[in-house]
Amino acid sequence: MRILVSGSVAYDRIMNFPGNFEDFIIPDEIHKLNVSFSVKKYTETFGGAAGNIAYNLSLLEEKSFLYAAVGSDFLKYENYLKKLKVNLSGIKKYKKILSASANIITDQKNNQITGFFAGAMNFSAKIPRITKDDLAIIAPGNPNEMLDLVELYNNKKVPFIFDPGQQIIQFTKNQLRQAIKQCSIYIVNDYELSLTQKITAFTKDILLKNSGVLITTLGAKGSVVEIIQKNKSERIGIRAVKPRLVSIKDPTGAGDAYRSGIIKGIIISNLELLPKNYLQFPWLKIGQLASLAAVYAVENYGTQAHKYTYDQFKNRYFKEFKLKI
Fold first, then answer.
1. Residue at 325 is within a domain
2. Facing residues of 225 across strands?
3. What is the pTM for the complete model shown?
4. CATH number at residue 67
5. Domain presence at residue 10
């Protein structure tokens, strides 16, 4: 069974602002915003949604096939991914442009402002070669390519997770509606859920009926998995795992780690149940696994700075939830 991961592969430049954005932004003057934040810490790390997901899957002892467009500066990231045994056959290199990069400023309340340079992400990666029993995730990347993959996976009957992320505003009403209808699982954070409803004009009930499985992450408040099938619905609340450290270091990348946990949970459950038997999945256990994967990213500064063995992960899962994986 192969895990196909598509989306952005980028260099992240993460900065911490030792204050709160809200103290320096006047709502009535937002139309002429001109602010400068003096940051306390600056780090450049490997990132991008697809790159982060592939990294976390490797920690969970799952080999992924990465599909992304990269630029002339990809070599050090490439060597790093090879050491993680990520399959890079889906990578397409463009020598005359730089890879994507994200410049992220996080305040004390974990609010974030991001400046994103798409670079090579404006171009296409290689088209996935579909085999039997593949599972895919379409993470934020080139919006046109994301829609192409929705059609490809739907036509080939490949179960896939659709994760629009920051690219959600790039989709029209009909494009987003179609992606939601065709995906196996739709996953967003609470703000993106509100945007989804605004863009599609779907009520929450209609959104759930179209997606089948709706997963909403709520940051420190945990996450919610909602399922509907044959007029039967279920809502599973999943608590967030508390960081071991007194203060949270950096939330950047936690969402991607969470998504890797969802994928791992599906794999160790029963992939054959997708997409016809959503209600038979142990969603509480899957969500708990994802919640634990996410907290490792929160506890470290950067999207791929956390490390653990799978045995360490299983032991911590048992201590946290009193269950075995």
1. no
2. 215, 236
3. 0.90
4. 3.40.1190.20
5. yes
